[in-house]
């Protein structure tokens, strides 16, 4: 059921659910819910705010986005043209509206997404604005209410949009630590990177009637599995049945539910006893100078980006278990998520690195078809993410550093994965890493595919093998959405800036690990030596850092992925 919101200025509009022709004003009075069939049409952010907050109480946060095009993305149109069109079409500066308000006379901060603006996609500015909203809630000691509507991360901003999942999640983590309530309201649709971060790692998750939420979209799942999807798949009622949301709320009842939740949180809140958390300096949202590093099409040492993608996927490329055999010693594998499953696509356990005990967690692919199938091609299920989460927390309790090896096309896009809460599993893993009180070094060894990769890559140091790739979406997926044909994957690979040199330039990756010539699969032993040396070089200095400092610096690392820093970096090179 896809009910589209009617355009302004029309007198009549047709219900997307039952096709009844409805008088526009009557529909608006009914909160854009069809009086005939109850279909909930999509609501623009400004209308949504009017429906939720006390009249006249909303004050927009002062921050305003500027032009941001961090990777100089061009598909059929340059990205800035799409931004301009979205602004003209919506009258909004970006895909989220943030501000302070009262709901039932209780103060809170709200961030409301607008699907009309480039599909409500999560880019650097949206991430920055929601983070600022969360920081405002922390400073004011009030709850944060997020109303989500998004197709996922904004691919036109490449891996930087992926980083926003971590940036916002750590702001949510700060509210969690401060005992401040966070509520998300899932509206139709909420998918991808938004679903797998702040839409599901809040304290309470409400789903509006008719909303659909998931990590992978139905089209992708159908394509990958070749199966028909169950009736009502990913709908609010499906989510409730599978334990993914606290309640399903019709639009008319939404404000009342929020009032009740905010009142309960307020009544339960003790007077502040902890010192206020200092606010981070927001990164000013200024456009990067034209002609910066991202505007050049510098290919990595491996040559063309598409060629690098093929190397990163080479079946002979060393896997996590290969590196555990060669770069580490004494690996003792630990299994299971303690909730009913053991995912073969994620391996982990205790090992020694140059004599020091560490916890190693990584995606596991394979070299033969049988191995790849047995390991689900390195695509983790929710159980895999929950196993990783369990091992991270165990490492922190034991005071062991964590080394993650990332090699996945992405998280498992399957029906069961969605039923078992793929989005929430990834979201919790990302959030946990932002607060883990032990050193974390991540190495992208092969494919770093979207949220599934980030779930293991929120680290103090992120390293990347020379011919690995790290991307918000696969080149094929990006081509299918933005180009007329899937054959455009090589062009999409170049546009996405997914190679190690690109990501080092963008500050997402700290160091490039050289591979033997021509690539790791030609000399796995040499590749393992290079990986061990690089991990040691980055891990050793972290071992003496006090945990609180470590966590603070990690948060700063992910807090700084704003546009201004990018401009500074590009200028410095
Ligand atoms: Zn209807």
UniProtKB/TrEMBL annotation:
Enzyme class: transferase
Compositionally biased residues, Low complexity: 289-299
Domain CoA carboxyltransferase N-terminal: 11-280
Cofactor binding note of this UniProt entry: Binds 1 zinc ion per subunit.
GO molecular function: acetyl-CoA carboxylase activity
Gene3D superfamilies reported for this sequence: 2-enoyl-CoA Hydratase, Chain A, domain 1
Binding residues for Zn(2+): 15, 18, 34, 37
Metabolic or biological pathway: Lipid metabolism; malonyl-CoA biosynthesis; malonyl-CoA from acetyl-CoA: step 1/1
Compartments where found: Cytoplasm
Cross-referenced PANTHER family: ACETYL-COENZYME A CARBOXYLASE CARBOXYL TRANSFERASE SUBUNIT ALPHA, ACETYL-COENZYME A CARBOXYLASE CARBOXYL TRANSFERASE SUBUNIT ALPHA, CHLOROPLASTIC
HAMAP family: AcetylCoA_CT_alpha (MF_00823), AcetylCoA_CT_beta (MF_01395)
Protein name, as recorded: Multifunctional fusion protein
């Amino acid at each position: 059921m896809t009910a589209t919101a009617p355009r302004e200025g029309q007198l009549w509009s047709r219900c997307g659910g039952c096709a009844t022709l409805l008088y526009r004003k009557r529909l608006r009075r009914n909160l854009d819910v069809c009086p005939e069939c109850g279909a909930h049409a999509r609501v623009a952010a400004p209308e949504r705010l009017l429906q939720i907050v006390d009249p006249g109480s909303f004050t927009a946060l002062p921050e305003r986005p500027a032009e941001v095009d961090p990777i100089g993305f061009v598909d059929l149109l340059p990205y800035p043209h799409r931004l301009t069109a979205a602004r003209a079409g919506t009258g909004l500066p970006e895909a989220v509206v943030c501000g302070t308000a009262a709901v039932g006379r209780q103060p809170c901060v709200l961030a409301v997404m607008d699907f009309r603006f480039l599909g409500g996609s999560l880019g650097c500015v949206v991430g920055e604005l929601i983070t600022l909203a969360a920081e405002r809630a922390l400073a004011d000691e009030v709850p944060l209410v997020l109303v989500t509507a998004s197709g996922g991360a904004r691919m036109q901003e490449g891996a930087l949009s992926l980083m926003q999942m971590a940036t916002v999640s750590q702001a949510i983590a700060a509210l969690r630590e401060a005992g401040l309530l966070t509520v998300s309201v899932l509206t139709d649709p909420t998918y991808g990177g938004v679903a797998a971060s702040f839409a599901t790692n809040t304290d309470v998750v409400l789903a509006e009637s008719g909303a659909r939420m998931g990590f992978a979209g139905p089209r992708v799942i159908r394509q990958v599995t070749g199966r028909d999807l169950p009736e009502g798949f990913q709908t609010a009622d499906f989510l409730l049945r599978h334990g993914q949301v606290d309640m399903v709320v019709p639009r008319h009842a939404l404000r009342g539910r929020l009032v009740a939740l905010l009142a309960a949180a307020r009544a339960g809140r003790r007077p502040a006893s902890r010192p206020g958390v200092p606010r981070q300096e927001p990164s000013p949202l200024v456009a990067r100078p034209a002609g910066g590093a991202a505007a050049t099409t510098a290919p990595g040492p491996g040559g063309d980006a598409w060629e690098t993608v093929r190397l990163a996927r080479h079946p002979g490329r060393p896997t996590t278990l290969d590196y555990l055999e060669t770069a580490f010693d004494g690996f003792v594998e630990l299994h299971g998520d303690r909730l009913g499953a053991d995912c073969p696509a994620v391996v982990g356990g205790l090992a020694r690195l140059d004599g020091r005990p560490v916890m190693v967690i990584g995606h596991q692919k394979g070299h033969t078809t049988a191995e790849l199938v047995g390991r689900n091609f390195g695509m983790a299920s929710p159980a895999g993410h929950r196993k990783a989460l369990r091992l991270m927390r165990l490492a922190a309790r034991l005071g062991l550093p964590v080394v993650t090896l990332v090699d996945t096309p992405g998280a498992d896009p399957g029906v069961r994965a969605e039923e078992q809460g793929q989005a929430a599993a990834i979201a919790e893993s990302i959030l946990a890493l932002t607060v883990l009180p032990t050193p974390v070094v991540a190495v992208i060894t092969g494919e770093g595919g979207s949220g599934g990769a980030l779930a293991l890559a929120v680290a103090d140091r992120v390293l990347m093998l020379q011919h690995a790739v790290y991307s918000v979406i696969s080149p094929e997926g990006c081509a299918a959405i933005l180009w007329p044909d899937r054959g455009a994957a090589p062009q999409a690979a170049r546009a996405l800036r997914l190679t190690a040199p690109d990501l080092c330039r963008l500050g997402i990756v700290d160091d490039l690990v050289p591979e033997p010539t021509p690539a790791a699969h030609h000399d796995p032993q040499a590749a393992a030596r290079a990986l061990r040396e690089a991990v040691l070089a980055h891990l050793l200095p972290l071992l003496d850092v006090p945990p609180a400092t470590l966590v603070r610096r990690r948060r700063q690392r992910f807090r700084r992925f704003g546009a201004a820093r990018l401009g500074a970096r590009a200028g410095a090179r």
